[in-house]
Amino acid sequence: MDLKQFSTEDLEKKYKTTAALTYLLAGMLIVLLALGTYLSIKNGFNAIVVVPIALSAVVTTNFKTIKLMKAELAERKAGPENQAKF
Fold it and tell me: Do 8 and 76 form a contact (C-beta atoms < 8 A)?
């Protein structure tokens, strides 16, 4: 994803939305993993334990995207006068 094509306002909006949804997804996956583990201990293996493990790749990818968005926004806010000149 080329972040330079977005306007600063659009990028800030996309950053806030992506961050909120990613943290929500991560929290839900932690709860699902805990409940799945509890049910597996209580009733034997339950396939629901595999779901949060499989979906953790999505969370990892989103955290990487959030980091890139944050860096791009910081670079834009620094402005051309604060950037290194080559």
Answer: yes
7-19 pLDDT tens trace:
999 999 999 999 9
Find how far residue 35's CA is from the centre of its chain: 22
Expressed in angstroms, the distance from the first to the final Cα of the chain is 26
- Give the tokens for residue 6: 């977005």
Structure tokens at 33: 């993993």
How distant, in Å, are the alpha carbons of 27, 40, 71 from that of 5?
A: 31, 47, 15
Number of neighbouring beta carbons within 10 Å of residue 3: 17
**Directed axis angle between helix 8-43 and helix 50-82, to 10°?**
160
Domain layout of the chain by residue ranges:
26-76
Predicted model pTM: 0.81
CA dist 29 and 35 (Å) reads: 10
